[in-house]
Amino acid sequence: MSLFEKLGIVTNIWTKRVEDGDRFEDLVRQFGDHGFKDMEVREGDYLRNSEFGALIGEIEAAMRRYTDEQWKAICDAIWGGGQDPAVTTEDSSLFARVSAFVEQARDVTLSYAMSHAWLSSPEDLEVDTQQVIQAKKLAYLLCPASARLRIVGLAPTGEIDPQAAVANVERYRSLLPNCPMVFAVENSGQPATFTLDLAVQGGALLTYDEANTYRDDGTTLNPPEAFWSAVKMEDLTSVHFKQRTAAGVLSQVDDGFVDFAAMGRRLVAGDYRGDLLLENAPTDQPLEDAVSSRAYLLSLL
């Protein structure tokens, strides 16, 4: 199989469709039927304001009624085709709805991504800890067999503190130890080499988005060559594909600042084993955009 035939998606490409009333569950099935089997559920208003977002809110409220061990057992049972006896009568209908979603999502691999300020010391350690535990529980529910939580760094309220950032990553990794998962951070507003170094020091993996290294004028936070010279493939869990030009992020992957052919050659040469995820700018035709983007990428290798 060609590298780009394994392409998946980040669900924020569905923003306009979800805001126009498409059901999140139906989009999961539709994109899965077209070969996009890896899907990263990306937090955002588009998700929380949807019917599926309301379900997530109910799930998060229910989490508080179960121990960590009970939560793991419930998630494992749902994906195993049953219902754990720990589920209370109060929550039985909720988890029946979750089970219905699981049946639609069995042939895809779902991960979870949230924005979170991790580059400096938290203002409230307990609140910070509980936010990450909640996200990890949701990530585990979405895919117990291969759970992953990705954190996208929000702009810190104060100065970036590399030592605090590494300590945060180490702490986040240690939370909810009974629910094993990949923990990753993404390069966003900082140079990718800087984020990579913090991730490696903290024992986390990196989600890499080369478009995030480019400014609108085509200059870079750091040259991509510097990143590819520094990174080991085993330190990557996901590579995102979106194109940026002077006009901003495009709705389809095409020619622009990011050299996808060079990226593909590097990934093939390094025997990269993680996922590849499209993150186009949202439009009202995200499936057509995704299919066209895949065809463009396939033409490069």
**What is the strand tally?**
10
Beta-strand percentage?
A: 15-25%
- CATH level-two architecture: Alpha-Beta Barrel
Total domains: 1
Q: What do we call the CATH homologous superfamily? A: Divalent-metal-dependent TIM barrel enzymes
* CATH hierarchy, class: Alpha Beta
Q: What's the overall geometry?
A: globular
Gyration radius from CA atoms, angstroms: 19 Å
Instruction: Give the rounded overall mean pLDDT.
Output: 95
Can you count the helices? 12
Q: Let me know the largest β-sheet.
A: 8 strands, parallel, barrel
Unreliable stretches (pLDDT < 50, length at least 5) are none
First-residue to last-residue Cα separation: 12 Å
Q: What is the CATH topology classification name?
A: TIM Barrel
Order of neighbouring strands in the sheet with most strands: 1-2-3-4-5-6-7-10
Structural class: alpha/beta
Describe the model.
The chain is an alpha/beta fold. The protein has a single domain, classed as Alpha-Beta Barrel (TIM Barrel). It is 44% helix and 15% strand. It is built from twelve helices and ten strands. It has helices at 15-19, 24-33, 45-48, 51-63, 68-79, 92-105, 125-142, 162-174, 192-202, 224-230, 260-269, 286-300, and strands at residues 8-10, 38-42, 109-116, 148-153, 182-186, 205-209, 236-241, 244-245, 248-249, 275-278. The chain has an eight-stranded parallel beta barrel. Strands 8-9 form a two-stranded antiparallel ribbon. Strand 3 (109-116), helix 7 and strand 4 form a beta-alpha-beta unit. The longest helix is centred in the middle third of the chain and has 18 residues, at 125-142. It is globular, with a radius of gyration of 19 Å.
